[in-house]
Amino acid sequence: MPGLSRSLSKLTTVFCDFDGPIVDVSDRYYSTYYQALTDTARFYSELSAPRSRSIDILRDFSVLTKAQFWQMKQNRIPDRDIARQSGLSEESQIDFFLNRVVEIVNRADLLAQDKIQPGVTWALGLLKSQGTKLILVTLRDRDEAIGILEQHGLRQLFTGIYGTANSEAAYQNYSTIKTQLLKRAMWEHQITFNNLERSWMIGDTEADVLAGQATGISTIALTCGIRSHHQLAQLQPTRIETDLLCAAHHLVGMNYLLSAPCGV
User: Fold this and answer.
1) Is 156 exposed, middle or buried (CB count within 10 Å of its CB: 0-12, 13-18, 19+)?
2) How remote is the C-alpha of 61 from its chain's centroid?
3) Could you tell me which of 74, 76, 75, 101 has the C-alpha nearest to residue 88?
4) 158-168 residue pLDDT tens
5) Nearest Cα to 82, choosing from 46, 140, 32?
6) Regarding the domain delimited by 2-25+114-257, which CATH topology (the fold level of the hierarchy) does it fall under?
7) Handedness of CA 123, 129, 130, 136 (dihedral sign)
8) Location of each CATH 3.40.50.1000 domain in the chain
9) The pTM is what?
């Protein structure tokens, strides 16, 4: 396949984010929202009526459905506004809710709700089979990410894994930390001005796109994560794809294998 060989000759390194491209965190984030809202309602209910034993603690709130909640997250609606739309009106209640979200989002029972995105095993295997160097760059706790990769038999596909020791970094999506991690990974794997054109950053948030742009490498933004197509398009990534498998097919010049268009 001459065409495929030509495309692969320009592809050597793919830096990939974890949450979003590889792991679906939507169930965990929604459960965190629901639990934090429940805890807030219970706390303030007991303050006003200590003997109350209400069965429906959320009866006076406008609980968002998962679809509503995720759409708001994808469109970068601040958690404070999500709290207001859920029926929290007093700033003290909202602050309690926001603090509770941060406290529990990485709790073991909630982390267990994360799951591998569809097609990820195929995508990573395809890239690796074509000689691509795969390097994970994530704001997730590094040991935690390694554990999940090992659980699904994906650890050996990565040449390098770069993460944090800050359990809050992933949820807060710190762009500066992601850029620092990417720069370190590029330096340690000898990605220089001479081979920048053979490197890509794949992710689902502004942190990923901005990090790639700050380091001068091409970026692929995925809409399967926590940002909508509209939000990602404003960042002007090199390309937007629906998921990691579509991105992998594009990178190795095999889009013709897909039954539906992926690129936009």
Assistant:
1) exposed
2) 28
3) 101
4) 999 999 987 66
5) 32
6) Rossmann fold (3.40.50)
7) positive
8) 2-25+114-257
9) 0.87
